[in-house]
Each structure stands twice: as C-alpha cells, then as structure tokens.
Specification:
With 737 residues, the protein is an alpha+beta fold. It is built from 26 helices and 6 strands.
C-alpha cells in the first residue's frame, strides 16, 4: 500500500472517531438541556399551583368575614378561578419571553374543597385565630382586674356561707332530735297521771273513787265480811255493802292495772327511742364539729388565692373591704354552736333516771296489784293494804314531781331550760329566715314572669324552631351527642340553700378566672367571640316588668324585643328554644351572683349580732333584698356597681361574658353559634369549605431524545411522565383559611 493510501485510511478513522465522540457529547448535552427545562417547569408549575390555589381562596364569603370574622369559600366556581389564573399566567409568560424556552401549556387543573366551616375543629380554629390577640387583653382588663381586688373577702364569705349553711341544717336537725326526745319523755311521763289518779287522784266515781278511799273503808269492809261470814244468805246484813265495796275496789284495781300496763308500754317504747334520738343528736353534734374542722381546707379556696396573687391590677392586691377578718371571726364563732359532752351526758342521765323512777313505780304498783285478790276476799290485814297503797302513792308522787308537775324539781323542765340556754337567738333567726324566704319568693316570681312571656309569641317561636332545626343539622354533621336545653335558673326560697348556691356560682367564676392565670383557652376565645359578634338583649325593656309600672304597656314592649336576633348571646349561652327561657335563665344567674356579693356585704354589716347563725340569716336577708334591688337597677341603668365596697360597674354584657366563661366550652354551644350564623346569613355552614386542594398538570414539548427521557422516567429518575414528545408534570397545592 502506498503512503498516500495509508494516510487517507488513518484520516477516515479519525473522522469517524470524532463523529462518535461528538454524537455522544451532543446526546449528553441535549439530555441535560431537556432535563434543565423539565426541572425549571416543575418549579414553575409548583409556583403556579400555589398561586392559583391562593387565588381560589380569595373568593371567600364577604358577609361571613365582615359580620362574624370567619372565612369560608363563597359560591364562585373554584375550577373556573383556578383555570383562569393559570391561563393568564401562561399568556403573560408567552408575551414576556422573546424566546419561549419552556413553551409549556396548561393541560388540566382542578380545585377540590374540604373541611366545611360547620365542623367543630375548623370553626374553633377560626375563632382561635380571630380572638388570640384580642381576648387575653379584654378578659384581663375587663373581667380579671375587676374581680381580683375582692378575691380575698369573697373567699372568706364563700367559706363562711358554706360552713354556716351546712351547720344551720345540722343544728336544726340536732335541736329537732333533742326536742323530740324530750317530748317522748313527757309523753311517757304523762301516762303515770292516770295511774296516780287511780291511786289517790279521783280516778273513779261514787264514794270509792281511788284506792286511797278503798283503804279508808277497808277495815269496815273486813268487819262486815267477818260479821256475815257463816250466816245463811237470808240472815246476812251487809250483802249490799260488801258487794258495793268489792265491785268498786275491783274496778279500781282493774283501772290501776290498765294504767300501769299502758304506762309500762309507753315507757318501754318511748324511753329507748329517746335514747336513740340522743345518740343521733350526739352524732350530729360530732358531724358539726367535723364540718367546722373541714372548712379550713376547702379546695375552692385555691382559686381565690390564685386570682388574688395573680396579675397586678389598678386596684392593687389589698382587700378593698378591710373586713375579711370580721368574716373570718364569724366563722370562728361556729364552735359556740356545738353542745358539750357534759350536756349529752346529763340528758342521758335524765333518761336513765326516768327509767329507774318508773321501774320503782312499776314495782310498787305490781306489789299493790298482787294484793287485789286478798283485799277483795278481806284476808289482807288493813295495815298491809294501807301500807302498799301509801307506798305506791309516795312513789308515783315522786315520779310526777320529777317528770310531770311544773316546778324546780321537774327534771324535764330543767333539761329544756338547759337546751333553751343556747337557743336564745333562734326565734329572731327564724323570723329573719322567713323574711329572707319571702324576698327570695318575690325574686322567683319575677323570674317566672319573664318565662311566661313566651306564651303567645308564635312569630318568634317559629324562628326559634328554625334555630333548633339548624342546630340539630349541625350536630348531625359533627356526630355530636345531643345535649339538654338549659332551663331557667330557679331561685330557691330556702335562704340557706340559696346562699350556698350563689356562693357556688362565685366559686366557679373565680375558678374560671384562676384558669386564665395559666393561659388562654378555647373557652376564653369563644367567650369573647360570642360577646363581640352576637347581639344581646337590651335589658331596659324589662324595667317596667320589675318595677311593676304600666304592666300592659311594659309587657307589649318586652314581647317585641324577644326575637332570636335580639338575644343571640343568651340563646348561645343557655340553648332554650323559646322566646323567654334564655332571658329568664340569664336573670336567674345574675340574681344568684348578686345574692353572693350582697350576702358578703351582709356578713360584714351584721357581724355584731354575735350568734353565727343569726348573722348568717341576717346576711342572707340583706343579700336577698339588695340583690332584688340590683335587678331593678340593671334594667333601669344597664349596669350594677360590683359592690358597696368596690365601686366598679358591671354591665349586662359583662355578666353574660362571665357566665359564658363559667359554663365552659361545649359542642352544643358551637352548634348554636353556627345555627345563629346560618339563620342570619342564609349560609349553610356544612356547605362552605375552608380548605382547597388545587391540582395542576402542564405539558411541555421535549427538544431532544424523548425516547431516552421516557425510559429514564420509567425507572424513576424523572418526576412526571413522557408521552410521545410531550413531558407532563403534575403538582398539588393545599391551602386553608
């Protein structure tokens, strides 16, 4: 081969080699170009998906947002919004890019909606977001700061009312037991009077009216029997006299036996009962002692202490009344209500003494009764008969002096005097309790007047029926267990029970306020949300009803204000589906709260009365009277001063906020809130979503080697997929309000 031919062969090999190398490099670079375009497209599609999803949520319901501060999707077609936003974005890119590097097109887009506003978690989350900055400030300034200054004195008042309320019941039970046991002793003792009358007190008729009379005539009877003894009947001179004496004396012995048996039965029954009652009274006395000891460790005190020691307030941490010590002293006098063990021992000794005295009486009576046969047969010596009767009379007289006849020797009277020594204030206390009970009945009557306003309001009732239907529909949506409607908060006409119940309300309020010290909860957010976005009653319309003026006009004015839209907060709070039940419940709770505060004042003002139960009764009377006046002031002025000792005003709205806080979060309350929103806006919360899931699919033509890209996609190297010469990428973006 020539040199020239060999050179040409070598040059051709080099050319092929370079072509192969260039082709490999080109393919590699081309793939990287398409890969770069793919990754760029993925980033762009993800950005577009997020932007389109956010754009969809911009079509929220304006009325829900402006009126109730909550966000839910409106009625615009979400798919249209998403498609329109994406198309506009692609058009904008095409107009801006001189050289369309990606040259992508929208293949498909969808918007799916979930999580309706009517579901509890979603609704609660939106309330939380809406109120998380506002609620803590409002609650701290408007509620916590107002109640903190009197936490100390209210703690003492609550402890005192709780203790004295329990002691009053126990005290009355104990005294009733003691009275009953004395009455049993008296009833047993009275049965001896019949016995004594047969002996010497005129228990019969004719000349032989007592056994004492029989003893006087007994010697003559013996001589008459002896004179007629052994004679023929026609010769006997004293047949009539003997028969008369025997008949009368036999009747007296029979009467004596009946009286003794009756007395014996009564004593055998009544005195053990009296002993048992004494044991019960002693047990109650010990229960009172235990109650006094336990009062020092009431768990409810912790909430008052926590509020008192919490955040600083404008009024400081000092007791505004300066009378906590006075209330504490009242409670400290509770020991005076206890009876000494010496008194119980004395009463037990009196029962034993009566038992012994009757045993002696029964013994002499039985001895006398045993002589009846020999007396009637005239075989007993007159001295023996007389001695037996005199002995029985002496013992019965002694018994009567100790247990029946009024005088210094009467054991039962002495016992009654000992008991009366610690009851010196009972009469005044009972009268005071009756006056307080009458005032509480007036309050209960006024609450019932409000409840009765529902009669005849068919147009308002129809709206409440709609509310109930919407509430039940929302409950079904959330699969919530049905709750009971709240009834009217009744006013107990028992002053002690009413006082303790009212202090229970204050215990719960301070418990709720103490909970705020540890941080805000959903209950707080919901409380402030309800108070801020829903309407409550204009209480001035009730003024005429409470003051009793122009009743017909007042009732007509009130009826016009009982529509659901005028009492949304009250309905949400109590859940009664009628025009007056929620208002009555609100006023019942306000009265209970006012009764607690006014009773605290009453304890301070009546501390000098001494007897703790009398102080308690006087405080309850003061509390009931002034709480009733507070209700009139609330309807007249729309506010009440918190206390005579703390010049801070509380409005009707403030009371509702407190009760919302007190009642706590509940699923039923959430459903009632959503029902009110649905009724007022016509929006079905079950159909308005708060969450969108946007899906976007975009196609882009591949420039180089689509087959290689498709193969790489199948093994999972690429995101998306290749069909023909088109590369498809799909992205999902989720957003919620």
């Amino acid at each position: 081969m020539s040199v020239f031919s060999r050179n040409r062969s070598e040059q051709g090999a080099v050319t092929v080699f370079f072509i192969v190398i260039f082709a490999a490099v080109f393919a590699f670079v081309a793939l990287f170009i398409d890969f770069a375009r793919m990754f760029a497209l993925q980033a762009q599609v993800e950005t577009l998906a997020h932007a389109a999803s956010r754009s969809v949520l911009s079509a929220y319901d304006r009325e829900l947002a402006e009126r109730y501060g909550i966000f839910a999707y409106g009625q615009t077609d979400g798919n249209y919004i998403m498609s329109k936003v994406l198309q506009d974005q692609f058009e904008l890119v095409r107009q801006k890019d001189g050289f369309p590097l990606l040259n992508a097109r929208l293949d498909s887009s969808t918007a799916s909606f979930m999580h309706p506003i009517g579901t509890y978690p979603v609704f609660e989350q939106q309330i939380r977001e809406q109120m998380k900055y506002r609620a803590p400030i409002d609650v701290t300034i408007e509620l916590l700061n107002r109640f903190k200054p009197m936490a100390g004195v209210m703690k003492e008042a609550s402890n005192t009312v709780d203790l004295l309320g329990k002691l009053q019941k126990l005290y009355d039970q104990r005294e009733a037991k003691l009275d009953e046991l004395l009455e049993l002793q008296r009833q047993a003792a009275k049965t001896v009077e019949s016995y004594a009358k047969v002996l010497s007190g005129g228990g019969g008729s004719g000349s032989l009216s007592t056994l004492a009379d029989a003893t006087a005539e007994y010697p003559e009877f013996v001589s008459q029997v002896e004179a007629d003894e052994g004679l023929e009947p026609e010769d006997r001179m004293y047949t009539a006299e003997i028969s008369r004496y025997r008949s009368a004396t036999s009747g007296l012995f029979a009467a004596l036996d009946r009286a003794l048996r009756t007395a014996e039965q009564r004593h055998a029954s009544y005195l053990p009962q009296a002993k048992s009652l004494l044991d019960e009274a002693r047990r109650i006395n010990e229960q009172m002692r235990q109650t006094i000891a336990e009062a020092k460790h009431r768990p409810e005190q912790a909430a008052y202490n926590e509020v008192s020691a919490g955040l600083s307030t404008r009024s400081g941490n000092l007791d505004p009344v300066g009378e906590s010590a006075a209330i504490t002293e009242i409670r400290g006098q509770a020991d005076a209500l206890l009876l000494s063990e010496e008194l119980f021992a004395s009463l037990a000794s009196d029962i034993d003494r009566q038992t012994t005295a009757f045993a002696e009486l029964r013994s002499t009576g039985n001895t006398l009764q045993a002589q009846s046969g020999s007396v009637l047969s005239a075989t007993t010596p007159p001295s023996s008969f007389s001695s037996s009767v005199n002995s029985a009379v002496r013992v019965s007289d002694a018994y009567l002096r100790q247990f029946v006849t009024s005088g210094s020797s009467n054991v039962l009277e002495a016992s009654a005097w000992r008991l009366d020594a610690h009851r010196s204030s009972d009469k005044e206390r009972k009268a005071t309790e009756q006056a307080a009970s009458a005032t509480l009945k007036d309050a209960a009557s006024w609450i019932r007047k409000i409840e009765q306003l529902k009669n005849g309001l068919s147009e308002h009732q129809a709206k409440f029926d709609q509310l109930k239907a919407k509430m039940e529909a929302n409950r079904s949506l959330n699969r919530s267990v049905a709750g009971e409607e709240a009834g009217s908060t009744s006013v107990n006409d028992d002053p002690s029970e009413a006082g303790r119940a009212s202090m229970g309300v204050m215990d719960n309020i301070y418990g709720g306020l103490a909970g705020l010290m540890g941080g805000m909860s959903d209950n707080v957010y919901q409380t402030e949300y309800v108070a801020s976005y829903f309407h409550f009653l204009d209480v001035s319309v009730l003024n005429g009803l409470f003051e009793g003026k122009n009743q017909a006009d007042a009732l007509e004015a009130i009826r016009g204000q009982l529509a659901p839209e005028s009492q949304e907060v009250e309905y949400i709070l109590y859940g009664a589906h009628n025009p007056a039940g929620n208002i009555a419940a609100a006023f019942g709770e306000i009265f209970a709260m006012r009764l607690a505060i006014r009773t605290m004042e009453g304890l301070v003002k009546n501390a000098a009365k001494g007897n703790p139960l009398l102080v308690f009764a006087a405080a309850l009377l003061y509390g009931a009277q002034h709480a009733l006046q507070d209700m009139i002031s609330l309807t007249r002025d729309g506010k009440i001063q918190l206390s005579d000792y703390l010049k801070v005003d509380l409005t009707y709205r403030d009371y509702l906020r407190l009760f919302l806080l007190l009642h706590g979060r509940s699923e039923q309350r959430l459903s009632r809130m959503l029902a009110v929103i649905a009724l007022n806006t016509g929006v079905d919360p079950a159909e308005r979503s708060t969450y969108v899931q946007g899906k976007v699919t975009v196609a882009m033509p591949l420039w180089f080697l689509p087959g290689v890209s498709k193969a790489l996609g199948k093994v999972g190297i690429l995101k998306g997929h290749v069909e023909g010469s088109q590369y498809y990428v799909a992205k999902q973006a989720d957003f919620s309000y």
